[in-house]
Amino acid sequence: MDMKKFILLTTVITMLASCGSNDKGELVGVKGKKWHPEKPYGMELIPGGAFIMGKGDDDLAGIHDAPAKTATVRAFYMDATEITNSEYREFVNWVRDSILRYKLAVLADEVGKMPEDGGIGEFAFKDADTANMSVYEKYMFENYTGLGPTGYEGRKINRKVDLIFDTADYPDEYYTEVMDTMYLPLEDSYNGQRTWDVKKFKFQYSHMDMQEAAKNRGIKRRDAIVKEEIEVYPDTAVWIRDFAYSYNEPMHNDYFWHDAYSDYPVVGVTWKQAKAFCEWRTIKKNSYQKSRKGAAMVNTFRLPAEAEWEYAARGGLQAATYPWGGPYTKSDRGCFMANFKPVRGDYAADQALYTVEAKSYEPNDYNLYNMAGNVSEWVNASYDPSSYEFTSTINPSVNDNNNQRKIVRGGSWKDVAYFLQVSTRDYEYADSARSYIGFRTVQDYMGTQVTGNK
């Protein structure tokens, strides 16, 4: 190419590049989608700031695992209440229904049934009919679908058709066959009642191990992606297992599923199940965001770090013993301020025998309920008695994948007052479920301008 043609081509490209632009050639940066902070439903904004973390006075139990130190945390949203049975049931039902839809779609594919055939064909994969695919969808279908052990990976199930649970309305024998696989065998049932095989309610998800990726610079991205499969149904037998020689069968039978307990905190969930719930909640919200054109994706929901939990529990009060201040567990009217085990084991003295509704007693100054008592709460941290000595002072967090002792905070309905203190640390193993441990979730706040000492 001669010099004249090169100069002419350069001029044309320059003119085309600046055509329609209003930046007048100035560096104005790339503009993204318009974004406005939106407080998630049921959550409260916790402004970032510094606080004295750990025991503000004598450690009467002599554990010495929480020496006082100054810590600073960034702003975040936190659930106003513990996750309730009703909210967790939504997760369980979503997992169950997703598995059912997937099995129905697979069988429809195997027997060659399409939506127009009716019956099980109505539950065929969304890509069963490729006529209405966009160019992108067709490309993804042709190049990536089925790259896995089953051959069905990447195919989308149909969520628009309602599932049928009444046996009298099953559309065909194929549908009946799939439904039968989700129930316990007849020999495991009694009184003529079919029971869901909850061991099959498994949630699969993947996430990136950011800590591992940051430490090992040479690691490939795919090697830092962790795939999980978690049974999501809570262990209702904890009500019997946790208390030997105690009659708690009614709680085992009714607590999780009966509407009478819908607004009570879910229990019997492991740390891993709580983490899975967070992943599902993120998927649920972002699926809705995708359906709104131009809507931005939201940050992930997660368990709080230990410092975040304590900061939120204090409600802006420095050196307080309890979320309401302290150092007493009764109000000036002689009423207990939380649900715990007072008066040498008089469980009912605080107006509750087991758990209470998640929105009970008075909230703290961040409008958070039951940050002391009711149920202890999983946090995203591993227990190390000396961790306060070596953690960072900004957003301190210790979560060792090899340490299965995970922190629980806040105390519960069966604990004495010491465990209700905002600085008291306790732990349980990640794969353990208890009748007195639940959780609540948090979400990062986008931006840093919201602080408690603004």
Automatic annotation (TrEMBL):
Superkingdom = Bacteria
Any Pfam family matching the protein: FGE-sulfatase
Q: Which UniProt keywords apply?
A: Lipoprotein
- Signal peptide annotation: none
Coiled-coil stretches: none
SUPFAM superfamilies registered for this protein in UniProt: C-type lectin-like (SSF56436)
Q: Which PANTHER family match?
A: FORMYLGLYCINE-GENERATING ENZYME, SULFATASE MODIFYING FACTOR 1, 2
Q: What is this protein called?
A: Gliding motility lipoprotein GldK
Question: Which species is this UniProt entry from?
Answer: Mariniflexile litorale
